[in-house]
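Task card 7
Instruction: Convert sequence to structure tokens.
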Amino acid sequence: MTEATLNTQNPEIKRNYIIEMLEQLTVDYQNTKQERKEVAVLYPNFEEEFTVLEEIELLTVDIRGYASQIKTRGWIENEQHAINQLKNMRFFDIPAIAQFYLTTGREYRRIKAYMQMLDYLRLLILEYLQPNQHSQPELV
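Output:
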């Protein structure tokens, strides 16, 4: 391993990046205000339990909540539950999100970019919580 590779394995570097992403997402979310207003009007809840915006909010609360715990404490309470939950958060498995994202073409770029960054933050948190997942052999 090179020195650069070793440095990126440092949990503090990962934690700082999670904090940076969390702060950027706050700005990005605020920048989606106009698009969220349009989506609320154009995509009301007809067939699904929650609207696309409500689904995004649910994901936001969970993911940003975990990132906030890492920011303030450096760890997450009930870590294994968090890992399982984060692994199972597949954005396109949520019908309202998949339909919105895949059928709106080039519209709503800010909301889509926000969702991409939110998913990226989810993956960063998983990597932070599972620092040795790549180096351990998978048990069969």
